[in-house]
Design goal:
about 160 residues; mainly alpha; 8 helices; DedA_domain; transmembrane; transmembrane helix; membrane; VTT_dom
């Protein structure tokens, strides 16, 4: 995997790629690449849009995994996830409880490091409808990227 400076040199395609990976379970520094792209002269609004779309597409892979596992599928990947879920225990139970209680608005928390992915998978496992899922995940992740891009632009 290329480092964040290489991805930033790729410009918007690199930002899209790293944001999409970060939206799934791959731990990559999408915020660092976003900051580098904005620092390099890309308009913050364009960079925010590209990063948000990529990150939401990555989150949709986790959502699909959650739906698949909940329906009894998943094969080896589903079994791995169920083992991981059992290992996480209380944290995953708390996340699922929040999604059951708050519904789709709980997905605003998808921007959080580490636990955000758990909210996304829980949304899929608990059957949050696709349109509210996309709306709330986009809002949560978009606000994170807005903060990073505006902070970078203000530092210029």
């Amino acid at each position: 995997m290329p480092d964040s400076s290489t991805l930033a040199a790729w410009g918007l395609p690199g930002l899209f790629l790293v944001a999409m990976m970060a939206g799934s379970v791959v731990p990559v520094p999408s915020e660092a690449v976003l900051a580098a792209v904005v620092y390099g002269g890309t308009a913050p609004t364009v960079a925010i849009a590209v990063a948000t779309v990529g990150n939401v597409l990555g989150a949709l892979t986790l959502y699909a995994l959650g739906r698949w596992v909940a329906s009894g599928g998943g094969g080896p990947l589903g079994r791995w996830y169920l083992r991981r879920r059992a290992k996480e225990g209380p944290r995953m139970e708390r996340v699922e409880a929040r999604v059951r209680t708050w519904g789709a608005p709980a997905l605003l928390m998808s921007w959080l490091p580490v636990v955000g992915d758990a909210f996304v998978i829980a949304g899929g496992m608990l059957g949050v409808r696709p349109v509210p899922f996309v709306l709330f995940v986009t809002l949560g992740k978009g606000l994170r990227y807005l903060f990073v891009a505006l902070s970078t632009a203000a530092a210029l």
